[in-house]
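User: I'm putting together a teaching handout on how multi-component assemblies are represented. Below are the sequence lines for each component of a complex, exactly as they appear in our records. Could you produce the 3D structure of the whole assembly as structure tokens, so the students can see both representations side by side? Please keep the chain order the same as the input.
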Amino acid sequence: MQAPMVLTPDEALWERLFQETRGAMALCYQCGVCTAACPWGLVRREPFSVRTMMRRAQVGLLDGDESLWLCAACAQCEALCPRGVPVAEVFQSLREYAWEQRRVPRGLSSVLWSVYWNNNPWFQPPSYRSRWARDLEVPRFDPEQHEILYYVGCTSAYDRRAQKVARAIVQLLRAAGVRFGTLGDDEPCCGEAVKSLGHRPYFYEIAQNNAKRFAEAGVRELIATSPHCYEVFQNHYPRFQAEFRPYHYTQYLARLLEEGRLRFSREVPLRVTYHDPCYLGRRSGEYEAPRRVLDAIPGLERVEMAHFGPDALCCGGGGGRMWLETRAGERFADLRVQEALETGAQVIVTACPFCMACLEDSLKGLGIQGMRVMDVAEIAAMAV
Amino acid sequence: MESFGISRDGHEWHFVVCMKVVPKPEEVRVDPETRRLDRAGARSEINPPDMNALEMALQLKDRFGGRVSIVSMGPPFFEPYLRVGLAMGADHIYLLSDRKFGGADTLATTYTLARGIQKLGPVDLVFCGEESSDGATGQVPPGLAEWLDFHQITLVTQVELDPLRRVVRGRRERPGGYEILEVPLPAVISVKTGCNEPRFMDYRLKPWAFAPERVTVWSAADLQVDEAFVGVAGSPTQVSGLAQAPSRERKRIRLEGSPEEVARLLAERLREIM
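Assistant: Of course. Below is the structure of the complete assembly, with chains in the same order as your input.
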């Protein structure tokens, strides 16, 4: 006879989760909308039961190791939850607990060490950070001369593909006559990877230091390339007395267009479809700015996919999943590029370096020809 | 009690890890005039192989209890870097710091480190990274074993402790296989770079790790060293020249064909080189 499974609720963990979510996790009444909404259900026969995770968290049980790391923080479940439970935050609390228990997937400690020693999660030398702009002569930010700081971010600074986006943004800001600078090699990592992977205490240390550094540098406003950096600046830095105002670069471009500082004069005769990054869309509520930028480009035809805006499908790269392996056949981006193909668009346009990497991988992996992935900034730069 | 590091026979394990703080390799410049390494302005980090050595020692502590002491020879600025090791789970830092130790080659370094380790009292295992990223001689672990008159296993990727027989087994990777060496304790283990994943700091330990009493600084007088054996005086090594290695030429050969063909062509080329 099989021995009955004995579960011992951990009251200390429950207490902690309750505190960290400011009581919100207690609101879950187990309706299961989250499980139905989770994109893992689209790629696995057995869906990832978010509801079960929530229930186990409510009674203070740390769930099986693998499922804890599946969440891409896409917020699809949060958008539909009738009780407003911050599911991804609960997951991050469970991950924080896993760090304390040293039950963390292989490779993630190394990511944190890279942030610690190299100031980026990509294992790249800190002294190479501004190499992307070597020939561009981007000045060092000076609050006396510059109206805004361009915060490049780790991925755009080091990833060859994403560097092109940073270069396009520089081109656009110059075309609009914006007086801006960067922090060069001293630009700090925003800590989003650390936060998403659940090491909250280290993230708090990073955010606190950065809030101070930005204040000392005289930063009042900044433009972030990645929605991931933007999202933590916007939603998680204010508690550390960060007083600067962050913009995602699409928001800033939309503002420049509105103010008449940026004008698109060249035709870009492309049929494009816009993929909403989760951290810009559902996490930050920004669906309009990137579309306004695209719609201002002469000759550009923009079409929507079957799921867009608040219903957009995640690429799979959020919630720290960029640093975890996703098996072939389980990649959300595979489904996303199929959706994009059905629109007849030539280009999937997005505004996030992680989305770009995942979508490009899927195009290559599926052997799709005649479609490419571009960033809003790259398309916009073609129009000036 | 096991949790206090006393094993059943009452033995308290004592693991020592030798650690060094190094400049980030890509930030070190070679002065074209003097041909000396110019470390000014370079950021520092813990020598990466030493992190693997510390992780190996901490895994033994997790399993058998006991304590882990970090021993380092270097200037006072090493201190905050070494405290990272405390936040990972080590117990105490011994920093051997004295102007007289400056300019040491590996002979003088190993002598000084050995004097520091002898001052700690009974030790079971001494872990070192296989080499430092700045000096890259790999001479410190064997030199240390000589001065201490300990057994040694170099370039170890996995270690196993047999508490009853008081022996340690180390696995070494060899071309086409591996070998396992067994030596009696106490022993020096040099740890292969990248053989494990160093755990990240436990932030609950951080305030403890940064308390002043966690670090003991020992000078030349504290260690009662023979001054002829430390620093420049104790270093017979002379650097007679420094040359730049020629950078490798890229051949830009593209292998074409089906995946099977490409794999076959690649295997052929690799065989030529091997």
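A couple of points students might notice: Chain A has 18 helices and eight strands. Chain A touches chain B through 19 residues (CB under 8 Å).
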